[in-house]
Amino acid sequence: MLGTLGAGFSYLLFFSALFAGQLEHSTNYAFEYGTFFTLPPIFDNLLQQRPQLLGLPTLTTSVYFLYRGSRSCLGTDTRDGKRELALAGLLAGLLFPFHMVASLSAFLLFALIYLKKILGTRLQSNRNYELYFLLFFLPLIAPYVIQMFAGIGQGSGFIELKLPWAFYFVKDGPVWFYLANLGLPFLLAIGSMYKKSVQPHGFFVYSWMFMMLAIPNLCSFTPNSTVWDMYKFFHYAWIPISLAGGCFLADITFSRKSTKLRKLLVTATITLLLVFSIFTSALVVTWNLSTCSSCASVGEYETGLWVRENTPERSVFLTWSSIHTPVTMIGGRLRVLGYTNWAYGHGYDFWERDDDIERAYKGNISDTLAVLRKYDASYVYVGKEEQKNAPECLKKFEYCEQLEKVYEDPSGKCNIFELQVFV
After folding, report:
1. Parent domain of 303
2. Phi, psi at residue 358, to the nearest 5°?
């Protein structure tokens, strides 16, 4: 449901291109990076963000049991409530190494629910059963958090605050930007505030919604120089947005004052919502089917096949830490280090390896051989990313007696060297 409804008014790009006679599936898309419609639809995002496939539903489930358990503990029988709170903490803790942002979101929602309880005058006498969440959450995330903060004093930059996401991506005024990018479900959620459609759950739903929307407008804490990944908070905001919007539609449809005209208008609204939301997903599918963007060149494809057929299955390759390389995505072999942003998102301390790879390609040949032996790597790959970041590396490897060139594609852009073992 979220995959379908989680989109704004970006389908207007299609109609704009259609009426202007500029329609082309490979260019008219439901998402424009860095321009006005810069929040990707959830369905589009789930096609390419594999961690989000786990992060979004696990966060939703954890928060469901967190809120359900918190309310159950208000009664006389607290056993089920304590179990649900423990399960919520367990899910959020297990999620941390797979999707740190989603796990952090679950903790922030726990903090809001707990803060409301301890500040509430009528609930002061109740025990703090919500702490069952922390009892299962904190031990699971502690090893990763300690590792992350240990690198701060060593200059690893694991935690790096930057300007808010909105500073980089909100171009034409925040009001119009968010109305356009969050779409009709957001407008319905705002309407539910005036009708009080989600009572008595208003604090839970709206605090979740506005907290997720506020965080990208207050700060950014993503790796390297990009702040793009902060958009995931908007996707998490779509969960309570859908809840509030759905309650609002039900409220105005089935209230005592509901008329035939109102029911007709609501039916039309729901129909349009579904049709155009599905239309956005359709644009995503047609783009992916018709785009001319290639994942690998012919030379890279042939290189990957050679790797698969001519190297041991568990062999380790030294490559640049790029997002795509034929060694892994086609050849299926291990690398000293893959794409660093993925390692960062899983909470791993990869900075030493990152420095070693740069030293291996940009330093002298002794540095290269030392790095190969340190990580038990048998092969060195030189492709477009390696030559772009270290232009002299190919010549350096060709003159090295300990490295033998075992493969070169016809274009000369993909080269593989094998470390020789001298007895």
Report:
1. 298-419
2. -60, -40
Flag whether 304 is in a domain.
Answer: yes
In the chain, the number of structural domains is 2
Please report the pLDDT score of residue 155 as a whole number: 47
Q: What is the CATH number of the domain that holds 402?
A: 3.40.50
Q: What is the rounded distance in angstroms from the CA atom of residue 325 to the CA atom of residue 384?
A: 9
Whether 293 is in a domain gets the answer no
In this predicted model, what pLDDT tens digit does every residue of 130-187 receive, in sequence order? 889 999 999 999 988 887 776 555 545 455 678 888 888 887 788 888 988 888 889 8
Place of tokens 């995503």: 284
224 Rama sector, left if φ>0, alpha if ψ -120 to 50, beta otherwise: left
Report yes or no on 61 lying in a domain.
Answer: yes
Q: What is the pLDDT of residue 406?
A: 94
Closest listed residue to residue 238, CA positions, set 178, 273, 196, 186: 186
How many angstroms separate the CA atoms of 41 and 31, rounded?
A: 7
153, 183, 209 — which closes off a domain? 153
Amino acid at site 404: E
Q: What residue has token string 């390692």?
A: 343
Out of 153, 182, 209, a domain closes at 153
Structure tokens at 309: 């057929």
Contact assessment for residue 360 and residue 419, using Cβ atoms and an 8 Å cutoff: no
Grouping H, G, I as helix, E, B as strand and the rest as coil, residue 317 is: strand
Calpha distance 188→211 (Å, rounded) = 18
* 325, two tokens: 């390389």
What is the SS3 assignment for 14?
helix
Residues of the chain with pLDDT under 50: 123, 125, 155, 157, 423
Measure Cα distances from 11 to 30, 41, 168, 285, 323 in Å: 6, 10, 23, 13, 29
**Token representation of residue 321:** 């830490």
Residue with tokens 């459609």: 197
pTM recorded for the entire structure: 0.79
> Is 80 part of a structural domain of the chain?
yes
In whole angstroms, what is the distance from residue 293 CA to residue 288 CA?
9
Residues 6 or more apart whose CB falls under 8 angstroms from that of 236 comprise 56, 59, 102, 105, 212
